[in-house]
Design brief:
Two copies of one chain form a homodimer. Chain A has 432 residues and is mainly alpha-helical. Chain A is elongated, with a radius of gyration of 29 Å. The interface between A and B is large, with 113 and 113 residues.
């Protein structure tokens, strides 16, 4: 009966696309994962590995022996192989390289020389090139003889004798044009070649804004290097988005949801440690005013309100600016306008909430003086929050940091410290 | 000289893709936007409008007269038109409908009847269908006579006499097969048709996991309704990701970065108001313990540390669960495993940070009792944070709410209230 169960699992997996199996594996607790992996179709293993999150992948690869790993990589495209190799043990990489043909090995080396986050790292070498002086009927006969066309192909690439990129020949053009015409007559000339060192993010923005399906990657001397296809770009867009969301909470998007408790505890500790330092800084500021609080405990009751309103307002500005930067919508030309606008919003929100909170505090503690002081503190903190929310990501980016990762910690440190300092400081000056 | 400048702008815009112009307009302060809009190529106006964020679009459409609006919509695909119409004044919609041919109008009505967030709302009606019993050379002749193929086409759709979907005929197959063969012999049979009511998010996941470029949309009776293309799916993925990021800060992803200060102030006020209520709830909890704080001001100094550590730890679990749910990786089967794991992380982190913070507090205020009490409060709050972070999004989703939008407010309310209550309550019981 157990054998029958396994057969059912295998039939089920046989129907699935490698990326779907990767998704399934990521959704399974680690104990079930190994069971499913053992029944995965052998010829999909490589592609599944490529699509797994780093964490899950390395756990599975750790249990594979050399032969299995070499076999899994055999069916992979050069660009996918280039993603996997850096995560394999040295001796296995050697073995894989030795098992390849000379030409294939050269190609792999060229892809490996580019960063994973660049056009060169994204590109795929599997493409069909034609010459401009060929006639379409020759192209048609060539394709029929070839018998297959690489996946996600919507265009052939036109190159000259030296391999320099000349233009695109869309499949739709081949199908709708007179076969007597030459490639030169019907090809698209005004095609943007993607420079091999363009960042993956810029490549994604280009694909998104031009509705591209494939695009040529070009070296500085005009040589056609490879092509980028939309499926890899979709992965970049998804990863970028995941990265922003996860890193704002100090998490890594490659983390396994089912990682062992102690592994996750250790990883998250870093973030908690950083936040503890900022919380202690805020506590130290409060400590400066112990004597004041002792005389008026209402201050202790209200101070978190001042800090939290600043944190919330600031994180709105911060999120807006981080997203604008990621989408390439904020640039040196309009940064000043954004800053002025956010400052304006900060001042208005500061005024509105100063009045609201002052009224609440005044009624609650029956003190006009207290309500004036909290109003002033709220106004100061919301203005500081707007300024910090707009400026912190710009500074972090100029310093080469990741605004999404550290922006929110720095921001809440500022709004906590400023909030407590303004509120308790003003109270010390004018209330006691 | 000014005319020359304008000519330069026009030349520049002429080179750009409509989506790039939309992006440019969104990156411009509102004053410059109108100037650029006036020099946009007339035949791109419709497509630019489709790609603008809601806010920016409606500002521009408000300044267009009926003739301009009708002209702008003329070149649009049915699916794009269906996105624009609901935002236009009733009389203009009438005019546009009247200017269309009967058949076109019917098609538009059918697209308008589906939700924007479903396969039906995403689909495009512009596609080429063929019969299974046709020979490929007939298909080739037909395509040549037709002279053009709709954008983003990688396959023709095979239907029977009643218009029911039979399979796909990829362009690459047409190009590589013997023209004497029939469509039936070479077409792909095992193609998943997308049900017309599938959610846009599920469509995006399907495209992503199967590396699709186009896919057929099918009615319940098997009728081919339209096709979905990868460029629209990329927009869905981007919008989904933007939505998660923005709504976690109470922002709307369709908002204009350069909206007038007062408009933005008003919109953000809602979020600040909700957060003020939760901050006041936390303040009320502190107020319950005024007498305790009066006797021991150290409590006021340390209480934000307890609350903020809970908030940070909880938001890590929350973000992980929200993302897992959005990617379809968390389901009823594995939710319990995730919960147990997060609880485990919460307990461990609670223990670790309880010890660290107790040591700091003990040294700072030279009190063993205080350090034991803060340790207990940290442990309680970090465990509650893990439970809330895992459970809140699941409950919100079951109630039909948006976990990304309200999850973090509810979470920090819980961690603030529990944190203050545990710390000040324990202090009242055991310290005073």
């Amino acid at each position: 009966a157990e054998d029958e169960d396994y057969e059912q699992i295998e039939d089920f997996l046989e129907e699935m696309h490698p990326q779907e199996i990767a998704h399934l594996l990521e959704s399974l607790p680690s104990s079930d994962r190994q069971v499913v992996w053992e029944h995965v179709p052998a010829d999909s293993e490589g592609e599944i590995l490529v699509h797994l999150a780093d964490d899950v992948r390395s756990a599975i690869m750790d249990r594979m022996d050399t032969d299995q790993l070499v076999a899994a990589t055999e069916s992979l495209d050069t660009d996918d192989l280039a993603d996997l190799l850096p995560e394999m043990p040295r001796d296995i990489v050697q073995e894989i390289l030795l098992s390849m043909e000379q030409q294939e090995r050269e190609r792999l080396r060229s892809v490996l020389s580019y960063s994973e986050d660049s056009a060169g790292g994204l590109m795929d070498l599997d493409m069909i090139t034609v010459r401009a002086d060929t006639n379409l009927d020759v192209v048609l006969r060539y394709l029929r003889r070839r018998g297959s066309i690489p996946e996600s192909t919507d265009s052939l690439f036109v190159v000259d004798r030296e391999g320099r990129f000349q233009g695109l020949l869309p499949l739709t053009v081949i199908l709708t044009s007179d076969p007597e015409m030459s490639v030169a007559e019907v090809m698209e000339h005004d095609v943007i070649g993607i420079p091999v060192d363009m960042s993956a993010r810029d490549v994604a923005n280009l694909f998104e804004r031009r509705d591209l399906i494939t695009a040529p990657v070009i070296a500085e001397d005009g040589q056609l290097m490879g092509r980028i296809t939309i499926d890899d770009v979709v992965d970049v867009i998804r990863e970028e988005a995941d990265h922003s969301l996860m890193s704002m909470a100090g998490l890594n998007e490659e983390e396994d949801m089912f990682a062992p408790v102690l592994t996750s505890t250790r990883r998250r500790s870093v973030w908690l440690a950083i936040n503890l330092l900022t919380a202690l800084l805020a506590a130290w500021v409060i400590g400066l005013f112990e004597a004041t609080i002792e005389q008026l405990v209402a201050l202790a009751v209200l101070m978190p309100v001042v800090a939290s309103m600043g944190g919330i307002a600031g994180s709105q500005t911060l999120t807006l600016v981080i997203r604008g930067m990621a989408l390439g919508k904020i640039n040196p030309t309009n940064a000043r306008t954004i800053f002025r606008k956010e400052l304006g919003v900060g001042i208005w929100n500061g005024l509105i909430w100063a009045i609201v909170i002052a009224s609440v505090a005044g009624f609650w503690f029956n003190s006009v003086k207290l309500s004036i002081i909290i109003a002033a503190a709220i106004l100061i903190n919301l203005i500081m929050a707007a300024i910090s929310g707009a400026v912190i990501p710009l500074i972090l980016k100029r310093m080469g940091g990741d605004p999404a990762l550290s922006g929110s910690v720095i921001l809440t440190t500022v709004t906590d410290v400023v909030g407590f300092f303004a509120f308790l400081g003003l109270a010390t000056l004018f209330l006691i």
